[in-house]
Write a structure and sequence with these properties.
The protein is of the alpha+beta class. The chain is built from seven helices and 23 strands. The structure holds 2-acetamido-2-deoxy-beta-D-glucopyranose (3 copies).
Length: 468
């Protein structure tokens, strides 16, 4: 027993030494990581305080130059293929993978062509843009690569490439219909491996009350086609007239259903094959590239844009539809110029595992599932939003990251509308979510009768279109 008494303090000392060593090593490694990040960090510091300001107007950008007058120079040769829209195309010659998807005119505070892209989050490769105008002029433009903020610190991120028009004498509207290519700055004479068509973003007149919906990319062979009919028809009753959707992968029945709605002009379904590994290298399917593509794609056509998922519905409690609610909300501000450009809706879970409502007027999910969390989540915690696309620069999942100058967001009181989140699974966290304080909320019953008619009608049409 005696040796033990002596050995114990010795072992304790040894342990303390090892702990100290680990402690020192930890800080050494941490220090190296921080230093590397600092050295690689190229983008300017966008602190939280500048979040809602229009902060793309950065000083010190050098001008771009006009390359050749007629586009016959060797380094301005047009790629073999025609310009594409909504296809992930590679940028060749970069150290890190770099893909571009779509290009939009930006004429608000900065004169640029805005390209939706995906590449390295920190320390991305430098790129330039080459622009072929409809009048045959070819320009080489300086470009800035700007990670979209909601990137979860993964290696790759949804990104904007801003192709700068300053000092070129070219106005943003002159680029509508032009072709543009993003090239690695270190090999500007390489022939382009991507070519995008520049799309217009100028809001058309008379679209104030038009409501469109953005949905993040479908994946894992999404297959809830039966519920999807109810979701589409409820949103149509709520005033939505168009849906932008992205196809990473779909089950055959859902593909057929979306085709059915596409033929009616209701759905724009865009391919979404991004060769960056979802969740490991980039946040779920590069969804922030999709949200922001949707923002600019809808800008000329949608007075309002609603960003929700296919298990969510924003349900107004007084008005019959969302444009009426949004107009009323805006009208409550004075002067009208103070009215917010975006409205956030608080999330309330309606678990599908909770019992059906015994007073359900129809056999619909939204009629049967009326039990929800008694206290909805706080704003920005799972909230979703509607916004004026023309007043936003950058969208996130739960709120608008950046508005145009002077625009702002506001929360919607729960007595005016709620985000109904029809969820199959309880969320993680260990607690038995079915025991959370709940209440019965029959707001959705206001639409049940009309909704049932529409769902029945649509299912009849679908049986012809999609027999399987
Ligand atoms: C642009 O070039 C094409 C082919 O060389 C020519 O047919 C067309 O007239 C030119 N357009 C203008 C505006 O110069
Ligand atoms: C969805 O994308 C897959 C894979 O690219 C494709 O095979 C399928 O046809 C697409 N579905 C629809 C409905 O466009
Ligand atoms: C979001 O809301 C849930 C439920 O109220 C809460 O448990 C969670 O901590 C909140 N998350 C954040 C980031 O505030």
């Amino acid at each position: 027993m005696k040796w033990r008494a002596r050995a114990a303090p010795y072992r304790a000392k040894e342990r303390a030494n090892i702990s100290f060593f680990i402690f020192v090593m930890f800080f050494a490694v941490f220090g190296v990581i921080v230093l590397t990040q600092l050295l690689l960090l190229e983008r300017p510091n966008t602190s939280a305080s500048s979040r809602s300001r229009y902060n793309e107007e950065l000083q010190g950008w050098e001008g771009s130059r006009i390359e050749t007058g007629n586009g016959d120079g060797g380094d301005s040769s047009i790629p073999a293929h025609a310009p594409l829209d909504a296809v992930w195309q590679p940028v060749a010659g970069t150290r890190f993978r770099f893909y571009v998807y779509s290009a939009y005119v930006e004429r608000r505070s900065v004169a640029v062509v805005r390209v939706i892209a995906a590449t390295k989050t920190r320390g991305p490769d430098s790129v330039i843009c080459r622009l072929w105008l409809p009048d045959n002029r070819t320009l080489t433009l300086k470009a800035r690569v700007k990670a979209i903020r909601e990137n979860w610190n993964l290696k790759y991120s949804a990104t904007y490439v801003l192709c700068l028009l300053r000092d070129t004498g070219v106005k943003p509207q002159d680029t509508v219909g032009a072709s543009i290519s993003v090239l690695a700055a270190n090999s500007p004479n390489r022939s382009p491996t991507n070519l995008l068509i520049v799309l217009d973003t100028e809001p058309k007149s008379g679209i104030e009350e038009t409501l469109h919906i953005c949905v993040k990319p479908f994946h894992f062979s999404y297959n809830r086609d039966d519920w999807l009919v109810e979701w589409f028809e409820f949103n149509r009753l709520l005033g939505a007239s168009h849906f932008y959707m992205y196809n990473e992968s779909l089950s055959t029945p859902v593909g057929c259903l979306l085709d059915h709605y596409r033929k009616q002009g209701l759905v724009t379904l865009l391919p979404w094959k991004l060769p960056i590994i979802s969740k490991v290298e980039i946040r779920t399917e590069g969804q922030f590239a999709a949200f922001n593509d949707c923002l600019y794609r809808s800008m000329s056509k949608a007075g309002w844009l609603l960003v929700i998922d296919v298990d969510e519905l924003v349900v107004p409690r007084r008005e019959r539809n969302l444009p009426a609610l949004l107009t009323a909300l805006r009208a409550s501000y004075s002067p009208p110029s103070k009215a917010p450009a975006a409205f956030l809706f608080r999330n309330a879970f309606f678990y599908l595992r909770w019992d059906d409502d015994t007073e359900a007027p129809a056999s619909l999910v939204t009629a049967r599932k009326t039990r929800r969390w008694a206290t909805p989540h706080a704003l920005k915690n799972r909230s979703k939003y509607a916004l004026r696309p023309r007043d936003a620069v950058e969208l996130g999942n739960h709120f608008v990251w950046e508005h145009s100058p002077g625009a702002s967001s506001a929360g919607v009181p729960t007595e005016r509308a709620l985000l109904h989140h029809y969820r199959i699974a309880c969320e993680y966290g260990g607690v038995n979510c079915l025991t959370v304080p709940s209440t019965v909320d029959r707001t959705a019953h206001r639409w049940s009768e009309e909704l049932l008619q529409r769902v029945i009608h649509e299912r009849e049409l679908l049986i012809k279109d999609c027999p399987a």
